[in-house]
Design a protein that fits this description.
CATH class of the largest domain: Alpha Beta
Number of domains: 3
Number of helices: 11
Oligomer: single chain
Largest sheet: 6 strands, mixed
Distance between the termini: 37 Å
Strand content: 15-25%
Radius of gyration: 23 Å
Strand order of the largest sheet: 6-5-4-1-15-16
């Protein structure tokens, strides 16, 4: 069975006040051409189809057009799950009806989990579609208050699967989660939670023939070749400037699994360039002047309207900075910002409270903040 694995489309994404819809449409057309050429038996989309719970109209139309082409025109079933950016409640609408057309969209986690089973000449392949859920949701679904982390939720699910299905048959896990050891980029929203950890141990998936993951935007393997993130279809921050975006083609031949990454070539790339103003105006420093650019100016003197002048040469500048100033700020301020970005919301609030009040956050207020954070998480996911 030939499987095409993709994830993290983030349709409706805005980068530095620029809608990426045109670039996403270009890339999804390229994906459609790859599908026509490779003729996979199944397409997997491992979460974050949209960038937010209420996507713009253009993003909804783009997803509708793409899925219609893949399922109705090319007639290949699509297996998709919701990620942490999607609204499971909104995307639940029509999901059971769509299954008859070949769109298997899993938006909710159920205590009695059932895979989607697709047959080839060698027998069944069981696809376990596991949408993103917070540990508190998993604890409620399984009626198990001991579930406090993503790891414990995954353990519960995998124990159910291994207890109820013949693991000598072929099994594929489709999930949207953070596997320990994965490499992050700045465009991902951290999977955080109150009082726990977002990480899942890759060793849990030892009995699965392939693990199709979404969430991390860099295409990568974790622990072994068959546990993989396909990565996002586009670069969504300059931390991804050196990434090569791709989709993953998986060939399940019996219990043998071979992997091939197929590169995606964007309409406009992300580049970081630096130089003196006069050099930049010559238009020779970027690989493509139409790319989305982060420019570092080496000049230390006054320049009148540098952005306006540079945009005549590079129309898609997203960020302009003075290299000397950024270096001055980097050792202290930048490191402090980076360290705070890694804090959980509650820890960040506690640090803020202690800095402002010069006192510890009382337990009563801590409980109130925890509750407010959880409410905000649910609101962001459209619940």
């Amino acid at each position: 069975m030939k499987i095409l694995h993709t994830a993290d489309w983030h349709l409706g994404k805005i980068v530095n006040n620029v809608y990426m819809t045109e670039d996403q449409a270009f890339m999804l057309n390229e994906l459609i051409e790859i599908v026509k050429e490779e003729q996979p038996d199944v397409i997997i989309i491992a979460g974050d189809l949209y960038d937010r719970s209420i996507p713009p109209k253009q993003a909804v139309e783009l997803l509708n057009d793409t899925l219609t082409t893949l399922i109705n025109d090319i007639q290949i079933p699509v297996l998709a799950i919701t990620g942490n950016h999607d609204s499971p409640d909104r995307m639940e609408f029509g999901a059971r009806l769509f299954r008859k057309q070949g769109l298997y969209l899993q938006t909710k986690l159920y205590k009695e989990h059932h895979p989607v089973t697709i047959y080839d000449k060698e027998g069944p392949v069981h696809f376990h579609l596991i949408p993103y859920v917070e540990p508190a949701e998993a604890a409620y679904i399984f009626e198990d208050d001991s579930i406090k982390s993503h790891q414990q939720a995954a353990e519960k699910l995998i124990d159910h699967i291994e207890s109820n299905y013949d693991m000598n048959e072929r099994h594929v896990w489709v999930g949207h989660s953070f596997i320990a050891g994965g490499m992050e980029s700045e465009s991902e929203e951290r999977l955080s939670m109150v009082g726990g950890t977002p990480y899942i141990d890759a060793a849990l998936f030892k009995n699965f023939d392939y693990v199709a993951l979404g969430h991390l935007h860099q295409a990568q393997r974790i622990l072994k070749e068959t546990i993989r993130y396909s990565g996002s279809i586009l670069k969504y921050s300059f931390s991804e400037a050196k990434h090569q975006k791709s989709v993953t083609l998986v060939n399940l031949n019996g219990n043998e699994c071979t992997i091939k990454k197929i590169p995606l070539r964007p309409k406009r790339d992300f580049e970081i360039i630096e130089g003196y103003f006069s050099e930049l105006l010559e238009g020779k420093l970027a690989a493509n002047n139409e790319s989305y650019l982060h420019i570092r100016l080496l000049d230390d003197g006054t320049i009148l309207d540098p952005m306006g002048k540079l945009r005549k040469v590079y129309p898609n500048i997203l960020h302009l900075e003075r290299a000397a100033l950024s270096q001055q700020n980097k050792p202290a301020d930048f490191d402090q910002v980076k360290s705070r970005q890694k804090l959980e919301p509650l820890d960040l609030f506690k640090a803020f409270y202690e800095e402002i009040k010069n006192d510890q956050l009382p337990d009563k207020r801590k409980t109130m903040v925890e509750s407010a954070i959880e409410d905000l998480r649910l609101q962001e996911r459209g619940k």
